[in-house]
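Help wanted!
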Amino acid sequence: MMWSVDPRSPLPLHEQITVSVRRALSDGTLAAGERLPAAAELAAVLDVNPNTVLRAYRCLRDEGVLEFRRGRGVRVSADAPVRAAVTDAARQLLTLGRAHGYNPAALAALLEELA
Amino acid sequence: MTAPRQAYSSTVIARRHLLAGAVAGAAIAAGLHVLAPASLAGPLAGLSVLVTAAYLASVRVTVGAGRVILGQGPLPWPTRVIPVSLIADARAENLTSGQVFGIGVPWHRRTTRMTVRAGPTLVLSLRTGEWVRVSTRDPGAAVAIIRSAHPQPVPTRENS
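Answered by r_m:
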């Protein structure tokens, strides 16, 4: 999979790393169960601090996209592709809602209404 | 340094190696158990074969920021770091089953084969004269990053 970071981007570096993982999941270059490079390895090739990569990995773990296995590195969780697609769609809904004056609570109420 | 940075990573796992290791490990353990039922030699030998197969079944490559990092086995170590400045040439190849010889162990002091399956392979020619072949999903992406970091490879006797 491809990783890219741009220090000039307004998006924080760790978020750019999470975007790389989500993009790879959505275009199929990263599959469930696949192992990601160790944080130190990825930090070395992206020329960023290892803590930045760890922060990105932790965010993705908290979202359920990645699993940490002691001594065996970081893997893509089994339901990550579906979860990533749903999270991506929710983000798009949030962006669209905000652009039209809907706050998250109003969007949640709308979803409840539709369900 | 503020320019955008790109990296490529891939892990290839040869499930056939794992299956072969499990079958061979079980066969050796059963065989030794028949010969010496009370001995631990059977289970230990079987486990050793399985662990070796697991080690040889997986290769990973990470490319970017002036270096190529190669690793083998299920653990994050050991790794080999190759500076891009040491790479004379990099190219993508599509190996056939007949061309895939070796299971990651160098059979020749000038060639390292980390080819766990046929198909897309990253081929590196080092300035030391060594060749490194690594199974990877998209070797073209790895080659593009290596070439962008080191745009004018110096021709060597092998690649000129």
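OP: Thanks! One thing I noticed: Residues 19 and 53 of chain B are 9 Å apart (CA to CA).
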